[in-house]
Amino acid sequence: MKNLLAKFNIEPQIIDEYFFNNIYSITLKAKNLPFFSNGKGWSTEEALLGAYGEMCERLLTKNYFEDYYLDNLYPDAKNCNFLDEKLKKFYQIDNLTKEDLIDFSSSSEEIFSIPFKKLNSNKVIYFPINLIQNLYASNGMAFYPNKTKAFENALSEIIERFVKFEVIKNGYSLPKIEHKLNSENIQIYDASLNRKYPVMAASYIKDNNILLSFGCDINQEKAIEKAYFELMQGRKNFKDIGEFSNNLDEVNDPFNLETHFISSNGLIHNNFLKNSNFEIKKWEFKNYLVFDKEIYYKKYNYQNFYAYQVIIPSISEIYPLDDLIYNNKNQGKFYRNLVLNYKNYDKYEIIESFESLNPYIDLGKFIGVIFKTPITIEKFIQNLENNSLNLEFDETYKKITQLI
Length: 404
What we know:
By secondary structure, this protein is an alpha+beta fold. Helix content is 32%, strand content 20%.
């Protein structure tokens, strides 16, 4: 993996390393690049291996580059017929405008899509890039030197997060199990939901505070280990964790679920403390194909390494479909030309265009670049009015464009 990253002149450096409750956590950052990755394990070597793997995964799948203004991010992207009728119905395409599906990164104003294969038939289906980037984030992405294992890892991540969201948003209580990792505040649970999914969970509970994590593996002990690792990752204490709530609407709010996706420290319903209605059954999982749903995948490979992005519509979404209308990540694209070519426009026309936006937004992040001197929309307008605007790209952004 070091050699793979070196091929792209990426030099990972350890910027954080923790040892907590017998678990090692490591955060890597690529030198002179805003690319981070995390790993955890019983040893420094195991944690470092995970962090290197995640960095390779985000590189090969292009996940690291999605937030930047970069043409040709996906060489196999096409302006073509996208999705099939069933998928168009699921994504409610008839409710969307063309602007809702234009990708953020490129300069094109057409809808570009990339090819995925349907697992059961290998039929190629094109998914709009902006749809993928708005709804799925990194969910269903995995990397491994073996393509079968890489695909299974991607599936297991989707299953884990699906069960996690189901438990949280429905206010489920899980059955406790006896395990050597249990302690005064830590408890292991069967999260298979009556043996439907190969998932285990782990919690840290103290007073009204809770941290809840999940792990998926067809090997039960490995699923427990993954859940426990997730509980400890990046921690040196249990101070910054979630709380219990009696309000189920508050718990299943998309913003709370997003918090659980990012840091696992969102709200959990008080029902979690009650006796569970789920049974503990024999663990007999043979594979990760536990959903009666269509599975779509995109495979990336470099030499002997493989990365997958897997999509299971209605299962693997991290963000709600409404985000394509009300919280679309491509918004800044439609202001990009006004900013980068401001000299070609009347400055009062530009100022008027920005009036409805939050003045404290970081302008570089908004349009997908990195400026040498960070600037808010408010400061951009002030400098424009005073004829003192000077926008220069940072060397970091130049390096990102060279990488692509």
